[in-house]
Amino acid sequence: MTVTVFTKPRCPQCEATKRQLNRANIAFETVDLTENPSTLEQLTQAGFRQAPVVITPDASWSGYRPDLIKQLATSAVETSADAKTAQTVLA
């Protein structure tokens, strides 16, 4: 699962999001929007108005959203369990 967190420096919501993702053992990539102005422009045009912006395979949101991080973690666990079950069936 690919998760990208678009951040900016000195952003408490960005740091809280990254901490929560780490606690949930969700791997993610970080993109600093101050170093990527074209990405910032694209996200703004897409309607995102605050940092961080989190993009997952099935969802996207802006701001610190522990409820959505929890959903993402639950989904990741279920996907992992489904993959293990499939491996057992195929073995």
Short description:
It contains 3 helices and 4 strands, in the order βαβαββα. The chain has 91 residues and is α+β, with helices and mostly antiparallel strands.
What key phrases describe this protein's structure?
3 helices; 91 residues; globular; alpha+beta
Write a structural description.
The chain is α+β, with helices and mostly antiparallel strands and 91 residues long. Helix content is 51%, strand content 15%. The chain is built from three helices and four strands; from the N terminus they run E-H-E-H-E-E-H. It has a four-stranded mixed sheet with strand order 2-1-3-4, covered by helices on one side. The longest helix is centred in the C-terminal third of the chain and has 25 residues, at 66-90. It is globular and about 35 Å long. The two termini are 24 Å apart. Mean pLDDT is 88; it is low at 81-86.
Topology record:
Layout: E1 4-7, H1 12-23, E2 29-32, H2 37-45, E3 53-55, E4 60-62, H3 66-90
Parallel strand pairs: 1-2
Antiparallel strand pairs: 1-3, 3-4
**Order of H and E elements:** EHEHEEH
The count of DSSP E runs of length 2 or more, i.e. the number of strands, is 4
Largest sheet: 4 strands, mixed
The whole-number mean of residue pLDDT values reads: 88
| Helix fraction by DSSP (H/I, runs of at least 4) | 40-55%
Structural category: alpha+beta
Distance between the termini: 24 Å
Strand content: 15-25%
**Largest sheet: spatial strand order:** 2-1-3-4
Q: Low-confidence parts, pLDDT < 50 over ≥5 residues?
A: 81-86
CA-atom Rg in angstroms: 15 Å
Shape: globular
Number of helices: 3
